[in-house]
Specification:
Chain lengths: 498, 150
């Protein structure tokens, strides 16, 4: 079996001492920021990206990925213990997880969350290994028109499926595309939107934008609306779930995993949509739905599996097509580019150690997280007591060092400050910045593919419709737009974002 | 006619988008537009600017009818203090060195919060700076002088 050959090759890479260490660092940092509210994986990865420049690409990606899925684990811990979702994906877990904790069953809730996440992570890893090669093989046949249509579909889907106002999200994608244009045009050498500033000829730094908007902008917003934190510290005793708990959880874990894997591949659907859908499904299937919200273990098992499966399978479009399906994936794509690796289907064949090593490390990371989260739960709970007034100056310091270290440029620090203000205004106006980041990352590539496609077809725009794969992407784009405008879906979206 | 739109999220989002879009189109007029076959450097930005203006007009129209208020406070203090602290960090990195730049950044940022206790903040700044020196300068080896011209 080729699959096993690939996977064992991957495990060989991931099990090297160095890569194991990066994996352990990644998932620890991830759990940490998952536990701490007010800082998410996006801001953390943006901040720490520059530090990974000296690390080999495989190690860097393993560590960054660990931060991402580690945060999902950490987020559920605080949801269960203090009714406070460390990450948005854990909002649903609060409903029944916290109730379980109040009934003295925090231990089983945490254990089931970890077991479900691990099962989902394992399935997600296998799915990437299975779906990766055929998808990449297909993508190798893509020409400029196919790539343009694919990116268009990805961006539109990401905008309309994301939480928040659809029109604003679409506008933010366009905003990102526009920001991506800044700098020297590769075709003509003309400097666009550079205003004669030397530092802008290479474009706006990816890290500058991400840190400015997601770290600084977020802090300003948080300081305006301080959230109250009631820390409920009860001793967690008796971690083991009962036989009945396990039996009740098998179904939800399986369904949650499948649901999460499905949503994971779709662009724009954050893990919160996956976990919310899983919760609704379990509630519908339950014999006695009134138990939900009062400490039903199914309400923890399903959503926790779903959000982890989603986090894992989000890597599929990024690794095989070079298409980021979420803000974090856009950052990972940026990280690859900075490492000098052109993202796309070629990565799997030209850098097999990167692809398979990363996949194998995710499974190892998931196993590490179970170990990290269950026996060491007390430590994470203590960290919850760190007040925000200590946290945000530290985030500022890490952000500043991170940005400065990219080019040793003070100009980029000033630009970060500006984007902090801009990001805050966007947050206040309800214009979610994540779609902007997707547009920013894809912008230059999209323009390039558009120009090439038009040159190829001698200026005939019908090239996008006459090539079957390209046409399929465009039809999918239209279908997504139409279904999202449908009133029923709109109402459901509103329900989710509340 | 009510003046409720003055606090409408949608209205101001629209205004922001129209402003950015219009600026993009105006600036892009200096670049060759080209045609569909050979797109000049002005083609893509002009199209995007146009899109932004259209989205903006729609949102302004929505904002005049629907009243979706901007929530929370504007945290003016943080909005001024945090970017200012960052700017100082940028200035001091080149002129005074890593340690003073970081100390100023941390103490400055902390003053944006609602609870500011000087002793506590100084301890935090000293601790974080020491950690950053060990981690970034000594362990990772970023080439920054700790102090310049002292």
């Amino acid at each position: 079996m080729e699959l096993f050959e690939h996977l064992s090759f991957g495990f060989g890479v991931a099990f090297s001492l160095q890569n194991l260490m990066y994996c352990a660092i990644g998932v620890s940092v991830g759990t940490l920021i998952g536990v701490l509210p007010g800082i998410g994986p996006l801001a953390t990865i943006a901040m720490l990206l520059p530090i990974t420049f000296n690390v080999a690409p495989v190690g860097a990606m393993i560590m960054l990925a660990g931060i991402y899925y580690g945060a999902q684990y950490g987020g559920s811990t605080t949801a269960i213990l203090v009714n406070l979702p460390g990450e948005t994906s854990a909002v649903v877990t609060c409903l029944d997880g916290y109730q379980m904790a109040r009934q003295g069953r925090a231990g089983p809730a945490l254990a089931i969350a970890a077991i479900g996440s691990f099962a989902a992570g394992t399935f997600g890893t296998l799915l990437i290994a299975l779906a990766g090669p055929p998808l990449a093989g297909l993508a190798l046949k893509f020409g400029a028109p196919e790539y343009f249509s694919l990116m268009l579909m990805g961006l539109v889907a990401a905008a309309v499926l994301a939480q928040g106002d659809m029109v604003k999200s679409l506008a933010m994608v366009a905003m990102g595309l526009l920001l991506g244009i800044v700098g020297t045009d590769v075709n003509s050498g003309v400097q666009r939107f550079a205003f004669g500033i030397n530092e802008l000829t290479d474009g706006i730094g990816f890290i500058v934008l991400a840190v400015g908007v997601f770290a600084i902008g977020e802090i300003v917003a948080n300081l305006g609306d301080p959230e109250e934190r009631r820390v409920f510290t009860d001793k967690v005793k008796n971690l083991m779930p009962t036989r009945a708990d396990l039996k009740a959880s098998i179904g939800p874990i399986t369904r949650g995993t499948l649901l999460g894997s499905f949503f994971g591949v779709l662009p724009g659907t954050g893990p919160s949509i996956a976990s919310f859908s899983s919760y609704m499904l379990e509630k519908k299937l339950a014999k006695d739905p009134s138990r939900f919200g009062r400490g039903a273990i199914e309400g923890v098992a399903g959503p926790e599996s779903a959000n982890n499966a989603d986090a894992q399978t989000k890597f599929i479009p990024m690794l095989t097509l070079g298409l980021p399906a979420s803000g974090v994936m856009a950052l990972m794509l940026g990280a690859l580019t900075i490492q000098g690796i052109q993202p796309g289907p070629e990565v799997m064949t030209t850098r097999p150690e990167l692809f398979w090593g990363l996949i194998a490390s995710m499974w190892i990371g998931n196993a590490l997280l179970v170990v990290l989260n269950l026996p060491m739960i007390g430590l994470w709970v203590k960290l919850l007591k760190v007040p925000y007034r200590f946290l945000f100056p530290a985030i500022m310091a890490f952000s500043a060092i991170g940005v400065y270290s990219v080019n040793n440029s003070s100009f980029e620090i000033y630009l970060t400050a500006i984007f902090g203000v801009v990001g805050f205004v966007w947050i206040k106006l309800g214009c979610s910045p994540a779609p902007m980041l997707l547009g920013f990352v894809l912008g230059p590539m999209m323009e390039e593919h558009l120009r090439r496609a038009m040159l190829m077809s001698r200026g005939d725009a019908s090239v996008f419709l006459t090539r079957p794969i390209s046409l399929a992407f465009l039809i999918a784009t239209v279908v997504i737009l139409i279904t999202m405008i449908a009133p029923a879906v709109r109402a459901r979206r509103a329900e989710i974002s509340d | 006619m009510q003046l409720e739109f003055r606090s409408s999220k949608d209205f101001w989002s629209g205004v922001m988008l129209i402003a950015v879009g219009a600026a993009a189109i105006l600036i892009a007029r200096n670049y060759t537009f080209g045609n569909a076959l050979r797109m000049g450097p002005g083609y893509f930005p002009s199209v995007l600017g146009g899109l932004l203006v259209l989205f903006g007009i729609y949102l302004v129209a929505v904002g005049l009818r629907r009243h979706d208020k901007i929530e929370g406070r504007w945290s003016l203090r943080a909005l001024i203090v945090l970017p200012l602290s960052l700017t100082l960090f940028g200035l001091l990195m080149e002129r005074a060195g890593f340690v003073p730049a970081l100390l100023v950044l941390i103490v400055g940022s902390a003053s944006a919060g609602s609870e500011f206790k000087l002793l506590e903040v100084l301890a935090l700044a000293a601790g974080l700076t020491a950690m950053a020196v060990v981690l970034f300068v000594w362990a990772i080896g970023l080439p920054y002088p700790l102090f310049v011209g002292w």
